[in-house]
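Form 7-S
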Amino acid sequence: MEENIEKTITSWPPAESDLIAVPEEITSETVIPEWPTLNEKALRGFAGDFVSLATCNSEADPTAVLMTFLTRFGVEVGRGKTMAVGDTTHKSILASVVVGSSSKARKGTSAKPVEKLFSFPETLFDVFPWATARSSKGPFSSGEGIIFAIRDKSAKWDAKTQEEVLVDPGVDDKRLFVLDEEFGGVLANTKREGNTLSMIIRQCWDGGTLDPLTKNNKIRATNGVVGWVSHITLTELNAKLAESESFNGFANRILWCLARRQKLVPIPVAMPRQELEALQTRLLDILRAAEGEGSITLSSKAVGAWCARYYADLTKDRPGLAGCTTNRGEAQALRLAMIYCLLDGERVISLDHLESGIAVWEYCRQSANYIFAGRQEDATSQRIIEALNNGPLKRTELHRLFSNNVNKDKIQTALKELIAAKQIAEHKDTGTGGAPSLTYKIIKEPNEKKETDEITQKNTPKDGSKLVNSLDSLSNNKKQVGDNAQVVVNGEFWEVD
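Output:
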């Protein structure tokens, strides 16, 4: 099956190193970012075999199929396997939005193979019984609706019998996969006054207890595993963004995946039943191996690569809405690596697993850059940038830009944030005799030193110990070495393979 992969997807050119080369950050001069490409390392193992079969005779975008599968698999595994990073516990919970280049991007087509894969024939259960997670087509309408789908049992006190009476038996299986094909509706619902959807979506990704402070009809859900995939076109997303003030609250929990029709298949052919059942048998074996509670850790080689090659770039501050939507890169990459580890039936994330997770994350980051490049986190900042792109403006001119309808404090806050992000510069002219005259202009070429330059040096990194403190619990089988490229873990030097 692997031989079909390159026929269905474009891969990056091989890097000089075995490790994935991270693309350069988009600058303010970039007009239109390039369409993202997926490194072939994302298509390793079972995931690659399935994507190859699913797209062999289909117009579906392989990356959209992959993202839907990884999200669905993360739900199926449940909350038994966890990964501790400092005081934070990560589970295999993902949220993905497939953004189509147009209405012909075959977004829905990408979901069908995943649905068929997890529709196990009963004959397979004779060997290994398995209760699949609940799957819903949505739509997301409110936070309370999500909680109700995985709610705890509830009881009330009966004063007459002096006993608790069961009111609602609740839901035993707290795994829920939602395929909501209308992300535009999600954005619209987050706008409604009093709607808790944005907050609950964030909490689902965080994996905590869902317990909103409502006065009436109080419900709660503990130990939930909610993963979801939604669809939208670029045109609709751009139109909805201006209307969605709460978008920034949960956008960085989402893996953004651009999709487009990869080829013309006038008469698509379904996945061959025999090959599909062979994959389903393999998948059930994988799920059996992932059952039960347990901790996922990083191998020493994975720790070395993470510290020296990836962490600095993943945690780098990036301006604008693209930066806002990707500022949880390190957490997303680790969750993806964790899923690849589980797909191999392992408990220790190898360098291969980490590289696969990074490959998927890089595609999602590039997608976010393509979708949100040039946009700011709020409408005020966006309008300031658009105006300054035409040339420098004085403070008074910026206020007139908003026809004095925007509070001056809000404009001041937007200016401070843009200056802090090194997107604009402020010039004070004190030669006027009175108060300084302030002028603002775009910074076209920010002089930014790469954080990875310091980390990969042989000398001890300035913040090396701090860099890896949160990873102390992740690594096992550490091996001390000599004078090769090194990182610092617990005050000791470790080799970067």
